[in-house]
Specification:
There is one protein chain. By secondary structure, the protein is an alpha+beta fold. Among the domains are: 105 residues, Ubiquitin-like (UB roll) (Roll); 137 residues, Beta Barrel (L,D-transpeptidase catalytic domain-like). Helices cover 33% and strands 24% of the residues. It contains 13 helices and 26 strands. The strands form nine sheets. It has a five-stranded mixed sheet, covered by helices on one side. It has a four-stranded mixed sheet with strand order 22-23-24-25, covered by helices on one side. Helix 6 runs antiparallel to helix 7 and helix 10 crosses helix 11. The chain starts with 15 loop residues before the first helix and ends with a helix. One of its GO terms (biological process) is peptidoglycan-protein cross-linking. This is Putative ErfK/YbiS/YcfS/YnhG family protein. Keywords: Cell shape, Cell wall biogenesis/degradation, Coiled coil, Peptidoglycan synthesis, Transferase.
Length: 488
């Protein structure tokens, strides 16, 4: 018999592209179906991560959410505490309006974008009643609590700011103190939030009025730093070319805080110090120890050429410099022709030796002119002292009682009419002529030819030292008095 053979089926394997397409299609169907199933679920359930007034209602139906909220809030009471003691209690029954809450929750469930449910897994939704639909009972209760806080504050104290006190120059920080008054608006915000979050207690001590400035505030630290910087400044004066330092112990006593708590210096104390400094270091009223050309060392009283510190002008200027918080080196504000900036008598000056009846001119330390002179006669002696050439004039007429003397060169040195000038009427110069009837009315008579050189050589402002030797201050005073009566 012949064997019957079944025809072979021609089976070809599925194309790889078709297989991939089928797999992707199945996945899309599954994912799309799952997505739609979830979307349908969230038509009746709240999205995950949804809460109402702090109560988690995610993935719950409307009914389940209401039941959970009722369970959580059934016996809810918020206790407000002050100083660790219960002050007031707020029960949910005093503020709850169930109808408004249920209506609000239902509306939110119905407004969910169910096809946007994946987003809810990444973001939280916190539901709270808008202000527009907060129950009147809650508003009334909050208003009541607010008024209670206002009444509580009536006899309570405000906070006191930290401040700096100076005790014997030492910086002391007085700590600020909390007030016993409650900050009304901040406390009310916290109470409303505590009700929404269903907290059981709220400590109103956290809302006591705080000091604006505390011991660690930047403003306090800045003031401390400024005071300490000022107290340790190096403050120096330049007086007669020398440096005089004000002791830090003195500056420490001057530092004060003004009515606004800002760093300042005590004007009266600074003024008193500057006044004392003026008395101590000013040349006025003192003698200048001078090594003369031919009469040895002599003491010459300061007269028109001097300087005196002006306390009324110097005090505010010094205070302003010190308050900058940097080291100070200054020349004080003075009155007078001389300056304290350098040595009061430098190496350029005019020397008039009445005993020797001579005049010497020194310019930059070098003697450039030496001449005999005739000074004031005994009844109108030439005034002794340290003066200066305050003007120069050509062809002047010197006038006084009973005389008018024309001169070619006139250099006044004081304010009474005494100066240096040529005198062509003198028969000679030097020796004892001043007491033999040829003496002047007080001026320094100089040979005309020499006077021309003096006039050209000596600039305005040059010191002029007039002396007789080491006579007593009493005799100096007598001579000055006599000279004041003369006009020339």
């Amino acid at each position: 018999m012949k064997e019957n053979k079944k025809p072979k089926l021609n089976k070809k394997p599925m194309d790889k592209k078709k297989l991939t397409f089928v797999v992707i299609f199945i996945l899309i169907v599954l994912l799309g179906g799952g997505y739609c199933v979830k979307a349908v679920q969230y038509n009746t359930h709240y999205f995950p991560n949804t809460s109402f007034n702090g109560i988690d209602i995610g993935n719950k139906t409307y009914k389940e959410a209401i039941e959970k909220i009722d369970q959580k809030t059934e016996n809810y009471t918020l206790t407000l505490q002050i100083d660790g003691k219960d002050w007031k209690k707020v029960n949910i029954n005093e503020i709850n309006n169930k109808g408004e809450c249920e209506s609000f929750l239902k509306q939110n469930l119905q407004s969910q974008d169910i096809f946007n449910w994946p987003k809810a897994y990444r973001h939280k939704t916190k539901l709270t009643l808008p202000d527009a639909i907060v129950s009147n009972r809650l508003k009334d209760k909050l208003s009541e609590i607010k008024q209670d806080i206002v009444n509580y504050n009536v006899d309570k104290k405000s906070a006191t700011d930290a401040k700096i006190r100076l005790e014997d120059g030492e910086v002391k920080v007085i700590a600020g103190k909390l007030g016993t008054k409650i900050q009304v608006n901040k406390a009310m915000d916290a109470i409303q939030k505590a009700l929404y979050d269903h907290k059981s207690t709220l400590n109103l001590d956290d809302y006591f009025v705080q000091p604006h400035v505390t011991g660690s505030s930047d403003s306090i630290e800045e003031i401390k730093e400024k005071i300490e910087k000022i107290q340790n400044e190096k403050v120096e004066y330049i007086l007669n070319g020398k440096t005089v330092e004000i002791p830090n112990s003195e500056i420490k006593k001057w530092v004060i805080l003004d009515d606004n708590g800002q760093v300042d210096l005590d004007y009266d104390q600074v003024h008193a110090y500057v006044t004392e400094l003026a008395k101590k270091d000013t040349p006025t009223g003192k003698n200048y120890k001078f090594k003369s050309t031919e009469s040895g060392t002599v003491n010459v009283p300061f007269d028109t050429y001097t300087w005196t510190i002006s306390p009324d002008q110097e005090t505010p200027a010094l205070i302003a410099d010190i308050l900058k918080g940097k080291d100070v080196k200054r020349v004080p504000i003075t009155n007078g022709a001389a300056s304290p900036k350098g040595k009061i008598i430098g190496n350029s000056y005019v020397e008039v030796d009445l005993n020797k009846q001579k005049m010497f001119i020194y310019i930059k330390g070098k003697k450039v002119i030496e001449t005999n002179i005739v000074s004031g006669e005994p009844k109108s002696p030439t005034t002794i002292g340290v003066f200066y050439v305050w003007n120069k004039e050509r062809n002047a007429i010197l006038r006084g009682p009973g005389y008018a003397s024309p001169v070619a060169y006139w250099m006044p040195i004081d304010w009474t009419g005494i100066g240096i000038h040529d005198a062509n009427w003198q028969p000679a110069f030097g020796g004892k002529l001043w007491e033999q009837g040829y003496g002047s009315h007080g001026c320094v008579n100089t040979p005309p030819d020499v006077m021309a050189q003096v006039f050209e050589t000596v600039p305005v402002g040059t010191p002029v030292l007039v002396f007789k030797g080491n006579e007593t201050p009493k005799q100096q005073a007598k001579d000055a008095e006599k000279a004041a009566k003369g006009l020339q």
